[in-house]
């Protein structure tokens, strides 16, 4: 049974939960063990997903135990007997549409050092490629940090997939993803030209305190958010968050940095299309 791996930004936790919960063809969902992903596991379970958590070096064993290596061969054997032939052929066709998904959700703090972030993502690709049929990179270009990723891994036997907009371009970052693509992001920036704007997705709004408690976060806040040029907090409604909690987080952020609040309509279209396009790459082989 095919395996799709996902290397994901912690800031895209909600989007990832959303697309996984929409996938009715999950045979097995494995989340790479990390003490920072307990909330991610909780959100998955709240959406009736039943993940298994394991350290990365144990994942191949779980995939084998999950029947990836033996299930189809066994069904082909049974199909040799007339009594089971039709049932087994139907089961084989159904299994071709199912996938094992392995998620490696990387911590938010990596963004404080883009070289460190790049090194971690590249390392994760090399570690996960041997047991994967496809790897979806659930990141944008992040300031061109991953702009050459596809080129750098052009000789990798395991294909890579990316979060891409309708024009086939990798999205710039989590804000571009939430707004519906690079073009939508650019239009928004033009609309708010002259007004320093901080864009807030539900994850950004719920995570800024956590980031502020780190030395890098305090430096960021002192250098940027407390700059008088910033005057607007743009709340992006992606439809994924508890609105009362999201609204309170945005209001608290705006009060902290003396910002006015404006509302923007978000979209899950790119996250959904990119996920299922990557999935189709391996189920239609």
Task: Describe the protein's topology.
Elements: E1 3-9, H1 13-22, E2 26-32, H2 38-46, E3 52-54, H3 59-65, H4 71-78, H5 82-96, E4 99-106, H6 114-128, E5 134-138, H7 149-152, E6 160-162, H8 174-179, H9 182-191, E7 196-200, H10 202-212, H11 215-225, E8 230-237, H12 243-257, E9 260-265, H13 269-283
Distance between the termini: 12 Å
**Count of domains:** 2
Walk across the major sheet and give the strand order: 3-2-4-1-5-6
In terms of per-residue confidence, which ranges show pLDDT below 50 for 5 or more consecutive residues?
none
Overall morphology: globular
Total beta strand runs: 9
Which band does the percent of strand residues land in? 15-25%
Indicate the radius of gyration in whole angstroms: 21 Å
Structural class by secondary-structure content: alpha/beta
What's the short story on this structure?
This protein has 285 residues and is α/β, with parallel strands linked by helices. Helix content is 48%, strand content 18%.
Provide an overview of this structure.
It is a single chain. By secondary structure, the protein is α/β, with parallel strands linked by helices. The chain has two domains: 3-172 and 269-283, Rossmann fold, CATH 3.40.50; 180-265, no CATH class. The protein has helices at residues 13-22, 38-46, 59-65, 71-78, 82-96, 114-128, 149-152, 174-179, 182-191, 202-212, 215-225, 243-257, 269-283; strands spanning 3-9, 26-32, 52-54, 99-106, 134-138, 160-162, 196-200, 230-237, 260-265. The strands form two sheets. Strands 3-2-4-1-5-6 form a six-stranded parallel β-sheet, sandwiched between helices. It has a three-stranded parallel β-sheet with strand order 7-8-9. It is globular and about 75 Å long. It starts with a strand and ends with a helix.
